[in-house]
Amino acid sequence: MQNIKKLLIIIGLATMATPGYTQTDSDKATKEISSKITLPTRKEVGERELNGIYTFTVELDGTLSNIAVKDSAGFGIDKQVVEQLSAQKNWKVMVFEGKPKRISYSLPIKFRLPKKQEK
């Protein structure tokens, strides 16, 4: 039971500290994903930014499974994010007490919308 509590504390800390690329740079993950997405313009949406939260599990081979939209950004963005996450294969696996473990993550992404459509 104590090992489970220890694991949950570590997972909680890891999730708070690194909501993206497990034990690497979360900014890199969100930039890589969002750079490949077609965004609506500010005029179309009436906002400067949209936010989405996406959950997934990092498998032992570094691929992602159980990808889901927790908080929708809307405007067709979620489908694109799920497609990008499904193609990701470079996530680091969490190691706990010397053994690789599957871990679930929540990835918040803030989309800054362009003033006009990029060509």
Plain-language structure description:
- This protein has 119 residues and is an alpha+beta fold.
- It has one domain (2-112): 2-Layer Sandwich (TolA/TonB C-terminal domain), CATH 3.30.2420.
- The chain has four helices and five strands, in the order H-H-H-E-E-H-E-E-E.
- It has helices spanning 2-17, 26-34, 42-45, 77-87, and strands at 49-58, 64-71, 94-96, 99-101, 103-112.
- It has a three-stranded antiparallel β-sheet, covered by helices on one side. Strands 3-4 form a two-stranded antiparallel sheet.
- The longest helix is centred in the first third of the chain and has 16 residues, at 2-17.
- The protein is elongated.
- The termini are far apart.
- The relative contact order is 0.25.
- The model is unreliable at 1-24 (pLDDT under 50).
List key phrases describing it.
disordered N terminus, 4 helices, about 120 residues, TolA/TonB C-terminal domain, two-stranded antiparallel sheet, three-stranded antiparallel beta sheet, elongated, alpha+beta
Number of domains in the coordinates? 1
Mean pLDDT: 78
Query: How helical, in percent, are the residues?
Result: 25-40%
First-to-last CA distance: 56 Å
Main beta-sheet strand count, sense and barrel state: 3 strands, antiparallel
Give the overall form: elongated
- Count the helices. How many? 4
CATH architecture identity: 2-Layer Sandwich
**Lateral arrangement of strands in the main beta sheet:** 2-1-5
Structural class: alpha+beta
Q: Which H/E pattern describes the elements?
A: HHHEEHEEE
Total beta strands: 5
The CATH topology label is TolA/TonB C-terminal domain
CATH class label: Alpha Beta
> Spans of 5+ residues with little confidence (pLDDT < 50)?
1-24
Radius of gyration: 16 Å
- Our estimate of the beta-strand percent is 25-35%
